[in-house]
Task: structure prediction
Amino acid sequence: MHKQLSRYVLALSCPEKKGIVKEVSNFLYDIDATIIEAAQHGDFEANRFFLRMEFVSASKQPLLSLDEFKQKFGPIAKAYSMGWTVNDANIPTNVVIAVSKLGHCLNDVLHRWKMNLLPIDIKAVVSNHDDMHEMVDWYGLPFHHLPVTKDNKREQENQILTIMKESNAELLLLARYMQILSDYMCGALSGKAINIHHSFLPSFKGAKPYHQAFERGVKIIGATVHYVTRDLDDGPIIEQCVERVDHQFTPEKLAQVGRDNESVAFARAIKWHCEHRVILNGNRTIVFK
Result:
């Protein structure tokens, strides 16, 4: 069996300035790295530049450790006022999944994880209901039933945060978790929680979106995946998936198509986030697919 190459991903954003790509490329050349994938984007209205580079060792010698890379790259990052991360692409992202009573997104993520189609390591599943317990048990994962009421919401959210901390989870996946996270929870998980919304946002927020869509006679329905913020269903959008429909679709048929949209969009967003392809740009995202 061949030894897996060290494969790193550098992602950054900074004010637009001449020479950024050259500076980064020269640095990688100097540490004996070769670039295997690169993408960049300039937002001239915001005067921001975005770059993602994936690289491996150019020789049989191992690359710098991540700590060494951060130390050596630091002066360049400081000179260009960069916000940046570097990650080992061979290490999956530790995640915890939250779900309520609808299991289609959870089931899809669990299946893709089991088939090694997502770069994640699922540490636990939490739920305010017990409906998904049997499914999670089948996959051999820890299931935490954490009922929530208006009186214990802070305590329940702290339990979720504790589970994440103890399992070294970096990301919370809200797989149709039908609870509004408190401002406290949103602050604790800023940039570390992804939600799938059963609607082509910003339309049809709230309860029964497919009934709302039916009443309006829509011709396209969709699903939206976004980062969780204190503004309900208004965080930076990572992915949206749509499907054409017509007058023959009942609310039930719309919901069936919508569940497929939700599963597909959710899986894409998880994959892109965990491959370090998503960079925040204010309330928007840059996604290097």
